[in-house]
Specification:
By secondary structure, the protein is α+β, with helices and mostly antiparallel strands. The chain is built from five helices and eight strands; from the N terminus they run H-H-E-E-E-E-H-E-E-E-E-H-H.
């Protein structure tokens, strides 16, 4: 844009000072018009582009916001589904564990009665069927459960003394503790009398600084020349899960 104007030689009816002022105003106004035209010519082409970019970014932001909300909703659904699956798996695991425990109990009872009847290939007479150890509130006191059996085919009452010894170390020396050292001193040594099976429960008290390694169970029957003995690893007994006693199983039935 080109701005042209012609200055008059002389403006009538005004003085020289007024004439100079008018000319100055005309010149300044022309310069301002030129600056305005230059500014408008540079900015106006960029305004539509900026508007388009702003509109595009707004649409992208709306799309991303919608996708975020959809993803958040899907995540909530997946978390609920995962929680349901986790609870179902826990219930299945608990049921499976319970059934496995019941199966093991039935299998243990079956083995027990097979042993009594002598149908499992073993024709043993008096025997220590199993032993259990349970920790108590005191680190030195342990509860024991012993099950003694005899083959049903013998069909006679057997009686005698039950001897409990504990092997271990005391002050880095191998030591064997006998019943008098494991009990309160006033409790007599256990004795047994049964026809098919019998269970014993009691407590063993170990001295300070004693490290047990084995539990020795010896049955000295009156009508047998040779005592029956069986050794159990102390740690294995202590770490074994508690079993339902034969007496408890009979009561439940």
């Amino acid at each position: 844009m080109v701005i042209k104007f012609r200055l008059p030689r002389k403006i009538p009816f005004i003085g020289e000072a007024a004439e100079a002022l008018v000319l100055t105003v005309l010149i300044v106004s022309s310069l301002l018009l030129v600056v305005y035209q230059l500014a408008v010519s540079r900015v106006e082409p960029e305004v539509p582009e900026l508007k388009d970019q702003a509109e595009f970014l707004g649409q992208e932001l709306a799309t991303l916001s919608r996708r975020y909300k959809e993803a958040q909703a899907r995540l909530t659904v997946l978390e609920r589904e995962t929680d349901v699956v986790r609870k179902a798996n826990r219930l299945l695991w608990e049921e499976e564990s319970q059934r496995l425990a019941e199966l093991n109990l039935v299998q243990a009872e079956l083995d027990f009665y097979r042993r009594l009847a002598g149908t499992g290939g073993e024709q043993t007479g008096l025997a220590v069927y199993e032993a259990e150890l349970r920790a108590t509130d005191s680190p030195r006191v342990f509860q024991y459960v012993l099950t003694l059996t005899q083959n049903i085919r013998r069909a006679s009452i057997v009686s005698g003394k039950l001897k409990l010894d504990v092997e271990g170390t005391l002050d880095n020396r191998p030591v064997t503790l006998f019943w008098s050292q494991l009990s309160d001193g006033a409790t007599a040594e256990p004795s047994f009398r049964f026809k098919y099976f019998q269970q014993f429960e009691g407590y063993l008290t170990l001295p300070e600084n004693f490290g047990p390694t084995r539990l020795l169970v010896t049955l000295d029957a009156k009508d047998q020349r040779k005592p029956v003995s069986r050794a159990f690893d102390w740690k294995k007994l202590l770490n074994s899960p508690p079993k339902q006693s034969v007496r408890e199983a009979e009561i439940e039935r």
